[in-house]
Amino acid sequence: MRRYRTFVLAAALVLPFCSSTFAQPCSLNTVRGTWAYQGHGTVMMSVPANPAPVPVPFAALGIGPIDYQGRYTVHATISLGGEIQEVDFSGLIRVNPDCTATDTYSSGPLQGANRLVILDNGNEIRSMPTEFPMGPAAGIFHLRRISRAEPQCTSGMVRGAYVASREGIVLMQIPGQPQPVPAPFSAIVTANVHWNGNATAASTASMGGTIVNFEFSSASFQVNTDCTATLNYTAVSKQFPGQTFTGALKYVVLNNGDELLGLDTRSTGVLPVVLEDMKRISMTPVTPDQ
């Protein structure tokens, strides 16, 4: 009987601890911190000379803090049909105990709203627009926490050997076509980034199903203290002898440089609506035959 009472007493002490361990409802404190925003989708927009709205692809990358009251501000770079825009907006997020959430935001006269789910103990959020400023839209945004406090990055964080995947749409000007023609785009990239920010890379890309290989012999990273970064590059391709390709990307640096979320902002000959996810595989550069 004494053993039974001892067991009951132990269970009474342990069960509340177990309940608090497994039952972790979400609150505003769950999402407090500085976040990276990356997303893509399609918005139905009214354009001149078209009686009905037309689908326009978009991709976006941004950074911003969420405070204790759920208020947030974001600075974002958006590629809307390949046209790059810099946008600032502010909003308010409301978090439910079941880790769903809603938010509303505005940028000048433009307003929007999202439906969200909170993942990984508050380190990740997925968001879907329910009201989009430019028109009815379908898309998904991935939010990743950079830090609980003010982010602090250095140029030395982004170095070593990286691999990346790139995906989206490029709009190409085709002779005889009045408007740029969209083509699906994907690429696999390997890159080496050195201490001074200089980088080399190689990629295999599919542009509408046509496979093209690029060599990036000249590229440079610039990392800012707020954990944003930019990359400018020059590339050549054996499929296009004598031609030089230039471009630029914006990034947000995560996990001390182990991962970078990117957005194309410029590319020779096309209007890019392309996102990139880059991950480090080694702290030192790796040659192709290693």
Verbal overview:
- A hairpin with a 4-residue loop joins strand 6 and strand 7 (124-131).
- Helices cover 7% and strands 61% of the residues.
- It has one helix spanning 2-22; strands at 33-45, 54-66, 71-80, 83-95, 100-107, 110-119, 124-131, 137-147, 160-172, 181-193, 198-207, 210-223, 228-236, 245-254, 259-267, 270-282.
- It is flat.
- It has 1 helix and 16 strands.
- The protein has 2 domains: 28-147, Quinohemoprotein amine dehydrogenase alpha subunit, domain 2 (Lipocalin, Beta Barrel), CATH 2.40.128.120; 155-282, Porin (Beta Barrel), CATH 2.40.160.20.
- It starts with a helix and ends in an 8-residue tail after the last strand.
- With 290 residues, the protein is mainly beta.
- Mean pLDDT is 90; it is low at 7-22.
- The strands form 2 sheets. The protein has an 8-stranded antiparallel beta barrel. Strands 9-10-11-12-13-14-15-16 form an 8-stranded antiparallel beta barrel.
Keywords for this entry:
290 residues; Lipocalin; eight-stranded antiparallel beta barrel; eight-stranded antiparallel β-barrel; 1 helix; 7% helix; 61% strand; flat
Q: What is the percentage of strand-forming residues? A: over 45%
Straight-line distance between termini: 68 Å
Helix content: under 10%
Low-confidence stretches: 7-22
CATH architecture of the largest domain: Beta Barrel
The residue-averaged pLDDT reads 90
- State the major sheet: 8 strands, antiparallel, barrel
Instruction: Give helix and strand order, one letter per element, not per position.
Output: HEEEEEEEEEEEEEEEE
Oligomer: single chain
Structural class: mainly beta
Quick one: overall form? flat
Q: How many beta-strand runs? A: 16
> Counting H and I runs of at least 4 residues, what is the number of helices?
1
